[in-house]
Amino acid sequence: MATQSTIVAQLVHISGPLKGKIQEFSEPEIAIGRHPSCVVRFPADLVLISRNHAKVIRQGNTFKLVDSSTNGTFVNGKRVKETLLKSGDVITLAEAGPKFSFLTQMKEVETVPKAPPPPVMETPAEPPPPASIPAEKEEVRPEKAVIEKREAPLVIQYGPTLRSFKMVPVVIGRNPSCDVVLDHAALLDRHAEFFFSNEQYWVRDLTGAGTVQINRRPAGPSGLPVSMNDELLLAPGGPAFRFLGQGRFVELEVQAEEKPSEKAEDEDRQTGEKVSAPRNRKSLFKKYFRH
Length: 291
Fold this sequence. Notes:
This protein is mostly beta strands. The chain has one helix spanning 262-271; strands spanning 2-15, 22-25, 29-33, 40-41, 54-59, 62-67, 73-75, 78-80, 82-84, 89-93, 99-111, 150-158, 161-168, 170-173, 180-181, 192-197, 200-205, 213-214, 217-218, 224-226, 231-233, 240-245, 248-254, 281-282. Strands 12, 13, 18, 19, 21, 22, 23 and 24 form an 8-stranded mixed sheet that branches. The chain is flat. Residues 137-142 and 258-291 have low confidence and may be disordered.
């Protein structure tokens, strides 16, 4: 099946009723507001936002934001009526209203060719022998990487803030000397390192304790490469991130482990069996980001 490359717009909602959602659009126009016709629609009672608040219009390989609201639209904190958007811009609908980041990504989209009319068969043809189905190839990831300073875009979204870098490697941790400083109790002074090698982004563990994991697989001191939608867990209770491709990491929230109910504890005491609490995970954005 043939494919063609197209630029997809992504809206990553940071705050407001749609907080935590990631929307993708390949349409020529993205309407935003409370009207039922809007593709990015907010609740009808959120009167801070106009019914037809704003539009993102595709113009070739660029995107233009057009504001048509009463309370205004802000890009990176500045009120605008019309402006060209860049990947990584943060858009706020009305002052102190819902906020989301605008990202772009090149994707391959399958195109379905028109099937030719079936030939007229005078006599039934013998069915062809069944085609052999090739064995599914196992994903092969490079085992070693070279850590060196080089130019590669890296975007880390934690809470309401985006941190952008043009050069890697980038170190994350609690120490003020780190490139990304996260004041999180589960992190060490120098916790993890992001770098680019073998045409892939990698993350390696700097803790020496094996706490940094990619899809529940320890990253280790040598690191592991990340692919689209991989989950990066810096510590068992978070912080956690999802990789969206092109060097972009978006925060995930890790819900704390639930305690067994009192009834389950009574049964545990009576039977001597150990009761484990289930774990739940869901995608949301946190609040604080300190550099």
